């Protein structure tokens, strides 16, 4: 009889493996839009503002009056006839022109998303140069549709915008009036 040989073929089945993504659930796809859209996102505001104000005021006032006094009668006959007149003229005019230009960029953070989808932004940028600080602060509301493909937005598209340029340091303090001058300006 022949010997029967039994061969056992072993197939190795690996343990069940779960699918693991290279991207976490909250990360964005590399093909997705990278414009700011949620709290914590950043967007760059290109500040290009020009404000010009011209004011002209004119004022004039004129007044005149005349008084006549007849000669006295009776015991007042020593009074002679008299007359008096007065004229008062006032004219004033003035004008003022004020022009301001601000240019720069500031990268701000989305601090809130309004129910209608608009983004509330806020940010501060400080630049120090020779112990002088130059600070730009910006707050406002933007529409996501106004953000460009490179995640920037022009400052004229920021609603309720507050742009503040400030500075401190030795140079800035020298450009302010002294305390005595400020007191005299206040009093007079």
Based on CA atoms alone, the radius of gyration comes out at: 40 Å
Task: Tell me the number of helical segments per DSSP (H or I, 4 or more residues long).
Answer: 2
N-to-C SSE series?
Answer: EEEEEEHH
Multimer state: single chain
Strand order of the largest sheet: 5-1-2-3-4-6
Domain count = 1
Q: Give unreliable regions as ranges.
A: none
Residue fraction in strands: over 45%
Shape: elongated
Structural class: mainly beta
Helical amount among residues, as a percent range?
A: under 10%
Number of strands: 6
Straight-line distance between termini: 132 Å
Compute the average pLDDT. Answer: 76
Could you describe the 3D structure shown?
This protein has about 190 residues and is mostly beta strands. It has one domain (about 40-180). The protein contains two helices and six strands; from the N terminus they run E-E-E-E-E-E-H-H. It has a six-stranded mixed sheet with strand order 5-1-2-3-4-6. Strand 2 and strand 3 (about 120-130) form a beta hairpin. The longest helix has 9 residues, at about 180-185. The chain is elongated and about 105 Å long. The model has no long low-confidence stretch (mean pLDDT about 75).
Key words describing this protein structure:
188 residues; mainly beta; six-stranded mixed beta sheet
Write the layout of secondary structure elements.
Blueprint: E1 42-69, E2 82-113, E3 119-129, E4 132-142, E5 152-154, E6 159-168, H1 170-174, H2 179-187
Parallel strand pairs: 1-5
Antiparallel strand pairs: 1-2, 2-3, 3-4, 4-6
Give a summary of the structure in a few sentences.
GO terms for molecular function: cytoskeletal motor activity. The protein is mostly beta strands.
């Amino acid at each position: 009889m022949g010997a029967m040989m039994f061969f056992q073929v072993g197939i190795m089945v690996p343990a069940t493996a779960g699918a693991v993504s290279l991207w976490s659930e909250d990360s964005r796809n590399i093909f997705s839009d990278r414009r700011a859209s949620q709290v914590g996102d950043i967007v760059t505001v290109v500040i290009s503002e020009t404000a010009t104000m011209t004011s002209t005021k004119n004022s004039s006032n004129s007044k005149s009056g005349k008084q006549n006094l007849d000669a006295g009668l009776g015991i007042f006959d020593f009074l002679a006839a008299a007359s008096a007149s007065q004229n008062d003229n006032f004219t004033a005019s003035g004008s003022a022109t004020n022009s301001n230009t601000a240019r720069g960029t500031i990268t701000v953070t989305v601090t809130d998303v309004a129910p209608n989808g608009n983004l509330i932004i806020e940010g501060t940028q400080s630049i120090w140069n020779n112990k002088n600080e130059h600070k730009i602060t910006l707050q406002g509301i933007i529409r996501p549709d106004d953000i460009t493909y490179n995640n920037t937005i022009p400052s004229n598209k920021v609603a309720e915008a507050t742009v503040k340029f400030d500075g401190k340091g030795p140079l800035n303090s020298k450009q302010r009036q002294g305390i005595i001058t400020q007191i005299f300006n206040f009093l007079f």
